[in-house]
Amino acid sequence: MKKTLLASLGLTLLLSTSASVALAEEANSVPAAKESTFAPLLEYNEQEPNDTFEQANYYFIGDAVIGTLGEEKHGMWENYDVYKIMAENKSSEVHFTIQGHKYPDSWLELTLFDSNGQSIKSSKNGQYFLNATLEQGKDYYLAVNALGLQFGGKMFDYKLSSEAVR
After folding, report:
1. Could you give the percent of the chain with pLDDT greater than 90?
2. Whether this model's pTM surpasses 0.85
């Protein structure tokens, strides 16, 4: 009887310990992106050339892209990158943020365009964010421009990220 009781207690202890470990692992496996609204879903580098609407890189809300402006290409200073955004399955307010250099005579600017290339909204001078409402099923273009970079000599490494606010 004692052996049966000890075996039952040992089996119960083993099973409860295994269940506790499994529950603890499940609790720790919650992705950080669910806990923080600012963590990008995916982070990647821009692909050149992406200086026109026709050459635009695809960009998805919630991702982050790393880019560079200010390199000399064919005797011109590259100061413009374009990303194509396909609005998700519902309209939403989106908060775009850009992190990068700011100089006394030049800074980064974000401009949102519709699918026809018409400007919708731009960030204000020196502000590194842009809020906009994207309508379901519509395509948009987001341009990153380094104002004041016409003559080069400055490099802008930047990180563009976004999040759907509602």
Report:
1. 50
2. no
